[in-house]
C-alpha cells in the first residue's frame, strides 16, 4: 500500500527525467513529510523552492525547465546522501470502513427511494469509486458512509470498531459534498483553525498548512475568501481543509464535476498519492460520472443502479466471467458500414450510443484483432476504447 | 468592515491564537476588549467636555443622547461579534473539546456583553464626578444649613409649625391638642405659629427602602453614606434650633433670609424659578414674617405685601422656591452609590448577560433552523398552556403553573432519553433538550414559586388589625424571599458547574449524529 523510500526516489527521478516537474515537485513534498525529512532545513527549503518556482512558472506559462532540472537534481543528490530510514510496517488492520447489508429507505411524500442492501469495505491507501446514473443512490451511499445519514437497516463499522462513538468517528472522516457549504474568512485562517482544533498546534500547524497549500498548489490563493474563488478551486480548498484533519476516511461526492480535464486528472492523481501516504494513509471513496478517469485511478468500483448494487469489488476483477468483449469506436462512418466490414469477425453486435458506436464481439475477438480489421479496411477512426473490463458496459445495457 | 481600526498587535495576537488556542481564537474577546478600551477613551473624553448644568432637574439629560449613541454602538458591535462567533465552530468540525468549554464560553460572553454595555460608563462617571465637584462637601452642607436657617422666615406651610398646645420637647397627649372644625364638620388640628417645628427642613438623606438582593442576603443591607466633612458641616435639628434662638434682631433675620436667597441664586436657571420671585426683596419677606399673627390657627395668614397682580393670580403667599432638587443632584453625584454598583443594576446585568450568553451557546450548539424552532416552540408552548389555563378558568394561575411543570418534566425526560439512548439525530429530541436546558437555571426558583403559589408554602395571610399576626407574616415573607434568593443561587450554580459540562458532551454528540434525511 505505502510507497517505500526507494520507490519515492525512483518516482521522483523518473519525473525529473521526463521533465514532469509538476509531479516531481508534489512528490518531493510528499516524501518530505512522509519520511520526516523536513527536519533537514536545506532539503525542506529546496523542496518548497522547487514547488514555488514550478507553480509560478506554470501560472505564467513560462517554465524554465533548465533551472528546475538543476534544482531537482540538487534535491535528489541531497536526499540520496541521507541515511535510508527503516521501512515502515503497514497496519495489520487496514480496513477503515465495513458495511454489511446497509440499506436506506426514504418515504417522504411523493419521493420514495430505496438503497438496497449494500456490503463493501474500504481500505487504507485505496481509492474506491461509486458509479451509476443520476438519482440511483450514489450520494445516499456516500452520506451513509460519512455518517451523515442513518441507515434504515444493516450495520457499518468504522476503523474496526463495532460500536460507533460518532463524535470521535466523524473526527476521522472528511466528507466533501457535491455542493460544499459556504465558509467564511480566508483560506489560510481556516486551515490553521482546522489544524488547531485537531490538536496540531504551533510550528507543526504552520508546517502542515504550508505543506498542504504548496502540495495542492493553493499557496498563492491562501488569502482569498470563498466568494473570491471559482467553483473548481472551491473543491481544492475543501480538499485542503479536509486534509488538515488528517482523516482516515475521505468521502467525496462528485469531486470532478466542476473540473477541467487536466484538473480532474491532477485531483485523482493527488488523491491516489495522498491516500498512500505512509505517515497518514487514508481510504478514499468518491462518486463521479467520469468513468474512464475513475477506472484508471481507482482500485475498487461500486456500481449502483436504481438503488441496487450491481457490482462491488476490484476494478480489475470486473467482468472476469464475461461472455463477450465490448469496444467503443468513433469515426467518420455509419453503423451499417461498420457492420459490413466487421462481419468477418463472427457474431458482432453494434449499438449506437449517440456519440460513439459500441461493438460487442465474442470473447475470442480482442482489441488488436478488431483494430487490425478496421485499419485493414481503412476506416477513418478518431476514437477507440476497450470497455470489456469497464463498468461502462453496465451503462450500455440500458441504452 | 472595521479592519482599518484593528492595530497590528491584535492581528498578531489573532495569529498566535489560531495557531495555539482555538477556543480563544473563536471567541475573539480580544477584539471586544480592544474596542471597549477605545470606546472608554472616547467616552471619557466626551464626559470631560460635556457641559455641566447644576440648574437642571435631571443632569443626565445632557448625557442621555450619548448613552444612546454608545448603546447603539454596543449593539452593532455585539452583532458583528456574533457574526464572527458563527464563523468558526470547533464542534461543527469534530475538533477537540473539554466539557468545561461552554462554561468558559459563558463566562467570556458575560464579560464581553458587559464590556459592550459599558461604553458610556466612563462618560457617566466623569460627568458625575464633575457635577459632584461643583462644590466642596463643606460648601454643599453650608448651602443646606443656609436654607434651613432661612426657611422659617420664608415658608408658607402650616405643617412646619407645631400643634397648638404641643411642644416637641415635651410629652403631650395627642388627645389634648387643640382642634377646630372645618366647613364640612370634620375636626382638624390647630397649629401654633409661634413654634417652628421643621428645623431640618432640607436634608439630602436617601430613603433607606428595604432593597432585597443577593448582597443583602449575604452581607446585610447597606446605606450610602456621606463624607465625614459633609456630616460635620451639616447642622442637625438641635443646632438649627439653637441658631434660630440667636436671631434676635431684624438684621440677623434679614441676614438669614439673604443667605437663603443666595443659595437659590446659585441654582437659578432660565426656566426654573417662579417668575415672581425677583419681584420681592428680602425686606418683604421679613415684613411678611413679622406680620404673621403669632397665634394658634388652622390657616396660614395671607402675605401683607403681595402685589396686586399676584393677588389676582391667586397667590396668597410670597413666592417660595426650593433649590434642593438641584442640590440633591450634586449630593447624589458626590455620595450616592454609583448605578454601576447598585444591586438592582448588577443583578440586571448578570441575568441579562447570562441569558444572552445561554442563547448564544444554544445557537452555537444547534443548527440555526432548530435553534429557531426552539424559540418558536417556547413561545407556542407558553401560549397554548396559557389558553388552556384560561379555558379551565378555576384558579387559572395554578393550572398554568402545573401545566408548565408537567411540560418541563416531559421535555426533561425526552431530553435525557434522547441523549442517552438514541443514535440518530432527532429534531424533536433537540428542541426538547434545548427547552429543558434553557429552563434549568431557574428550575429551583420555579419549584419554590410553584409550591408557594399552589400549595401556599411560606404564604401568610394576616389580619391587619392584629400586630402579632402582621409581624409573624413579615417574618414568613422575609423567609420566603430568602428561599427565593437561595433557589436562584443554587439553580445557577448547579447549572454552571454540573449541567453545562454534562450537556456539553451531549451537544457535541448531537452534532455528530447521523440524520434520517
Total beta-strand segments of chain B: 5
Strands of the biggest beta sheet of chain A: in what spatial order?
Answer: 5-6-7-3-8-9
Assembly form of the protein: heterodimer
The largest β sheet of chain B comes out as: 3 strands, antiparallel
**Domains of chain A (count):** 3
- Percentage of residues in DSSP E strands of chain B: under 5%
- Helix run count of chain B: 20
Enumerate how many helices of chain A there are, as a single number.
14
- The topology string of helices and strands of chain A comes to HHHHEEEHEHEHHHEHEHEEEHEEHEH
**Unreliable stretches of chain B:** 207-224
Q: How are strands sequenced across the largest beta sheet of chain B?
A: 1-4-5
Shape of chain B: elongated
Mean pLDDT of chain B: 86
Give the helix/strand class of chain B: mainly alpha
Structure notes:
The complex is a heterodimer of chains A (about 400) and B (about 525). Chain A has about 400 residues and is of the alpha/beta class. Chain A has three domains: about 5-80, no CATH class; about 95-315, P-loop containing nucleotide triphosphate hydrolases (Rossmann fold), CATH 3.40.50.300; about 325-395, YebC, transcriptional regulation domain (Alpha-Beta Plaits, 2-Layer Sandwich). Helix content of chain A is about 40%, strand content about 25%. Chain A has helices at about 5-15, 20-35, 40-60, 65-80, 140-145, 165-170, 185-195, 200-215, 230-245, 260-275, 290-295, 335-340, 365-375, 390-395, and strands at about 95-110, 110-125, 125-130, 155-160, 175, 250-255, 285, 300-305, 310-315, 325-330, 350, 355-360, 380-385. In chain A, the strands form three sheets. Chain A has a six-stranded mixed beta sheet, with helices on both faces. A four-stranded antiparallel beta sheet of chain A has the order 11-12-10-13, with helices on one face. The mean pLDDT of chain A is about 85. Chain B is mainly α. Chain B folds into three domains: about 1-135, no CATH class; about 135-320, no CATH class; about 365-515, no CATH class. Helices cover about 65% and strands about 5% of the residues of chain B. Chain B has 20 helices and five strands. A three-stranded antiparallel beta sheet of chain B has the order 1-4-5, with no helix packed on it. A two-stranded antiparallel ribbon of chain B has the order 2-3. In chain B, strand 2 (about 180) and strand 3 (about 185-190) form a beta hairpin. The longest helix of chain B has about 45 residues, at about 465-510. In chain B, about 25% of the residues are buried. The model of chain B is unreliable at about 205-225 (pLDDT under 50). Classes of the chains: A alpha/beta (about 400), B mainly alpha (about 525). Chains A and B meet through helix 6, helix 7 and helix 8 of A and helix 1 and helix 20 of B.
